[in-house]
Amino acid sequence: MRTISSEQVRLRMTQLISDCLVAPDAAVTRALERIRTDSASERTAAQLIAENNRIAAEKRRYACQDTGQAVIMVKLGDEAHCAGLFAALDAAVRDAYADARKSVADPLTRINTEDNTPAIIETELVSGDGLEISFLAKGAGSENMSKLYMLTPADGEDGIVRAAVNAVETGGRNACPPLVVGVGIGGVTETACALSKRALLRPLGASNPREDAAKLEKTLLEKINALGIGVSALGGALTALAVNIELAPTHIGMLPVAVNLSCHSLRHATAVF
Questions:
Q1: CA–CA distances in Å: residue 264 to residues 17, 96, 167, 202, 212
Q2: Whole-Å CA distances, 109 to 14, 94, 113, 247
Q3: Which residue of 164, 225, 260, 261 has the fewest C-beta atoms within 10 A of its own C-beta?
Q4: pLDDT (tens digit, 9 = 90+) per residue, 145-174?
């Protein structure tokens, strides 16, 4: 059994989260800088977003005023032990968000927790003695546009395409495009939703290793960009930078499909302990 220090986790995750909030995914910034489009307004918007990201990183200022709710995805080995892990993660969020907007409140009373905790912590038990922790800052603008579709097996890939395109067509303008679109397919309702968020952690430009899933990602990206929503919803060819699909086996009578949108301020990172 391997023992991992929760204090080490707290210190490292505090720094990782702090860095994420001021420096969105660099691959997104590079993609915006390289954009080629016939729309002058779309080009201008892309350049302004890229400039904002560069300035935020250089001056360590928040890239977006909505610093998001802390979503933390843990992969814990069954031969690893980390006493106080959840408390350490909440402490890291509390410290990293000390100067950020306080965005977490009770769902009924709407009373603010005042420190952006508790974090949303999803834990997956895996084999081995490792610990991998991923952080995703999820702003309300994009999260509010999430969709869950309970399709039938007969809907097949055509139904998946219709669902994902519909999610972007109805909500993409409000989610601060260009987007990264996470699609979770399979499992049960909560599985599909969790997969759709995990899909946002994938490096930009990396396809699903399954050939059929990678082909479906390409089809979805083409159809979503054909919607013409464009950067900052100004109209144009770049509505989404990527579509990432994650899969899980499901019941023979079900086809759950969850679609989770990330705004252009994609803030995530992973630490391995």
A1: 18, 21, 17, 15, 27
A2: 29, 21, 11, 36
A3: 225
A4: 999 999 999 999 999 999 999 999 999 999
